[in-house]
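Re: duplicated header lines in exported structure tokens

Our pipeline writes sequence and tokens for each protein into one text file. With two proteins the header for the second block appears twice in some exports. Here is an export where it did not happen, for reference. First protein block:
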Amino acid sequence: MAAAPLRNNERLMYAPMATRPRVTLPGGASVAFWHAPNVEHYDFIPPGGASPQGRVSAPDLQHYMHRDAGNRVGLWRMLRVVDEFEMPSTVSLSLSLLEEQPEVRDAMFSRDWEIMSHGISNLRPLYGMSYEDESAFYELSQLLSETYYGGRRIPGMLGPKISGTDNTTDLLADHGFTYFADWIHDEQPRPLRTTSENRIVSMPYSFMLNDVPIIMARSFSGREFIDLAKAQIDRTLRDAERDGQARVVCFATHPFLSGQPWFARYLAEIFAYVRADERIWCTTAGRIADHFIENHYDEQAAFAEEIRLEHAAREEPLRA
């Protein structure tokens, strides 16, 4: 049964970067870099008849085949680049693929990829779900991973179609998730308060260092996209070293795009760029979350609570 909902400022624990306690990374790194390949499944005929882009009624062959091509061909080309640079990866995964495409599953498992749930299928969003149905969804998600991925549990989620409910953060924490990537509101993991007080953090994902919105939606070239990524990393490093606040950079890819023949050299270029810089910790979202929760969560949450109480005290006379 759902507990009383939390107000936004109670849930999000606002604290400005300029004044919050210092966050550090293992080995004195300035930036944590995590690669998030989105390995997706789109139902050919999804429940309710939804289509990937709302372009036509299902089946929408154009967008369905993008994802199908990524899992048939593009992923395997991407893996050659990932292997070349031994790049840790946190796969944003449509969990039905664990059962339906064992070759994809085994390729990820053999490389020790971390699973970040992206739902069962990307055409089955969470909004509108009852508390009980959403809870059952996370129970099924963990069961799929434990059954088909070596007994491992899933540490985080990027919602299918970036969807959720007001119960999502609470339910994720209740089912053992430690990070939620839909909250793209900071350059560090941030505490998210839950009704149960179970610990979970927001994880900085990216819509900017992301091949689909930048290349497909905004028509950037591969060269422009990689130049943008380098500029983002360079400035993030500079800011982290200037103010002593370690930061997180996510680089999000989709095999149907980043696995295209013409893009392979650009993927290799950005991986070589981050691997050559000793100030960058190439890791997974789960390791970032674990480090933050163990070393910074309590201090950051306490600081944010002080700010919330200060804000509330200022608002009180206005309400009188």
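Second protein block, exported in the same file:
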Amino acid sequence: MRRRSFVQTAAFALMMAAPSLASAAGLTSSQVGAILGLLRAFSAPETVIASVAGALGGSSISDPLPNSAATSSIPAPLTRPDTTGSPYRSGSLGYDLSFNTRSYPDASGGFMVVGVTAGKAYVYNNRLHSEYALAQFGATLPTLYLNLNAPYGSTATSEHMSAPRTCDVLFGATTTSRASGGTYPEPSACASYNYGYNAAKSAYRHANSVGVSSFFWWLDIEEENSWSIDTAVNDAVIQGAIDFLNTEGVRAGIYSMPYMWRRIAGTAFVPAQTIAKENITTPTWFPIGVASQVKATNACLTGSMLIPGSPVWIIQYEASPTAVDQNIAC
């Protein structure tokens, strides 16, 4: 017997329950619109949507149906993000592993994202090889991430900042970096691009040296690391890292929180990516804190984009304050 899909089962249940729901609760047009929007979000056939709309269209419904003059009060249908090219199966669960992971989850059945760096650029996760080996048991090939920051402190060297672009100056006036705990010369945007480019290059080569590789890398952009008050400097770091990964045929995504991204990168910056002469979008992954799996799934449909025009591919959440980070693929 052929199994019904989730959409078919849900639609069938709604059609069967619709008369009693309508008479018992008096569904409003907003509630009807939300039900139909969810069906569209999960790509239900229009014939199914029409059947559900008809079943919900009894005289006991307190507000007119969506095709009446009252459509202005109905919220816009929920839409799924564009996950074209995503390595993650929609709806699958996964985990992210790092240099300070305290306990390891069961790898079977899900996906895993493994940290190459240990919290900062040019500093590496000494568990990378073993965590990558664990991630091989997932249902999806492992993907990777690296931490980025602006060029302050001991890693802001001429070696990391003098190429591939030729810069008139590497540093300007001094500035105080709270995250680095000192006063440092402010890097130029040109030198910052080189720093990001070489940070990704160094991480990529380090990963290869221990037998680790992936066609997709995330860039971890968080305010706990050192960033300039000049967003042009930070944007250059991020773009430089993406550009190096693209030269290796690797697509990059951004992990951050909306407010962090705005503080670090500004509101207008849209990272550019080109692989095999094709311009592609930069997908995003962001955390929502302690939440249920249902709430995390809803965030896929309603979450604000970090970057204009960039799809949300993963939502990170915690089942409890002490749980290992979990993720759901959009």
